[in-house]
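so ive been stuck on this for like two days lol. basically i have the seq below and the ligand is magnesium ion, smiles is in there too. i just want the complex predicted, nothing fancy, no docking runs or whatever. if the output looks off dont worry ill sanity check it later, just need somthing to start from for the group meeting slides
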Amino acid sequence: MSLLKCENVSMGYEGKVVVEGLDFQVNSGDYLCIVGENGSGKSTLMKGLLGLRVPMSGKIETGDGLKHTEIGYLPQQTVVQKDFPASVREIVMSGFLNNMGIRPFYNKEEKKKAQEIMSKLSIDNLAKRCYRDLSGGQQQRVLLARALCATKKMLLLDEPVAGLDPVVTSEMYDLIESLNKEGITIIMISHDIHAALKYATKILYVSDKPVFYDSKEAYLESEKGKLFAYGEGGAK
Amino acid sequence: MNILMESDVMATLARYFELDFVKRAFVVGILIAFCASLLGVTLVLKRFSYIGDGLSHVAFAAMCVAMISSLSNNMLLILPVTIVAAILMLKTGQNAKINGDAAIAMISVGSLAVGYLLINKFPPSTNVATDVCTTLFGSTSILTLSDSDVLICVIMSVVVVIFYIFYYNKVFAVTFDENFARATGIKASVYNTSLAVIIAIIIVLAMNLVGSLLVSALVIFPALSAMRVFKNFKSVVICSALLSVICATTGMLISILNDTPVGSTIVIVDMCAFLLFSIAGFVTGRGRA
Ligand SMILES: Nc1ncnc2c1ncn2[C@@H]1O[C@H](COP(=O)(O)OP(=O)(O)O)[C@@H](O)[C@H]1O
Ligand SMILES: [Mg+2]
């Protein structure tokens, strides 16, 4: 059984279909990249996978005992209000809340784990800083740390490198790759087809007629892949 | 001369504090200020300030109806009506299809009109003008609290504080990033609804203290002041609660000594504190330019 399975899913807003005919599954340990043009419905699909939006038709199933409280999520540009007072530690720790049930406060173990995760992402020195005073790359790391606190199994990342400079971008990709090697299943939306080809094991190309490629080699063989990966319109 | 005046003030205050109704007023005032500011932080950050304002008008209408029908305790009508209104407003505010802001403005102005019309047409006492003024600005009502008013206020405050402490972290998560909270399996709508109920309770309680037109000030000023200086959620919540209690106490003292209306005095003290905190934020470079 796979962790996540989509059967003929279509998603949309107020009766208008944005993306349809999605058929794919994600197994434990996979690194799935969702690629496609702007506005093709990638984020919408991810909201469906997360249960934030109900699909218009079709079925999205979780398997292998994956529970909703075991999923980590890095949203596309979290629009945090300009003056929101929140320290890095407060935000990172909030990732644990989904697994705490009715327990109101964090325990020692969680505090220790948050510290470990922050060190791993090299943001431990920022723990007391205010979130909105950080740079874009630092903010992304904070949100990734929060996502990691929320899961040991599966991470959904919506354009995790958007707006980051090349150095920080490749650091971010390396980080995600190492997480995948540790056994966390990754589903990542990306504009960057080169990165997708470098890191992913599976590729989902989303457009008005979505196609799922079981491996990136299969994608490269296809017409779409040739055009997108090597053509001039390629990586946007 | 100076010393003489000071001892004079102290003597006056001592005399006042021998009176039961003054003690009651202070207990209630401090509790309300404390609860209002706790929730104020979330209200401001969730962009719910307008709901607080709208609710106070609904509560005014409910108060008018309660006065006309001469219930044994006005709270019995006002509280449920305001809670229902809070939940409805929260839902309209989140609905993308209709213009939530305008809908809430309509409800709030509409209730004001209906309330005023009713109380004029079926006057509960001979002095409608004073009644209305009291409901709107809370002038003397804080000093005429009955024992049951105080009891209701104490119980409600305890409920609010327990809820807040117990759900503090979840309230933070839902306030900071509701989508993430929902995506990872936190039942955000439960917390939103609970917040709406609590906000309604606080608005109704605070109406006793400052009147319905000034309620919002009590809720949002301490939070806004604290946000000028502090940069993490916990410090902001603690600072705003302390500040609110200090301002309410100072306001009530000034009001007793100078015979000014309680509600507006407290709000003016809150405003002064906001000014001070803005300057402090600016000087320490923490405030926004
Ligand atoms: N909240 C919304 N209401 C209505 N339409 C939306 C909403 N969000 C996105 N859309 C539309 O759905 C389409 C897909 O959007 P999105 O999933 O964000 O694309 P992508 O992430 O692939 O760039 C776009 O045409 C967009 O205009
Ligand atoms: Mg997107």
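The beta strands of chain A are 4-13, 16-26, 31-35, 57-62, 71-74, 154-158, 185-189, 202-205, 211-213. Confidence is low (pLDDT under 50) at residues 231-236 of chain A.
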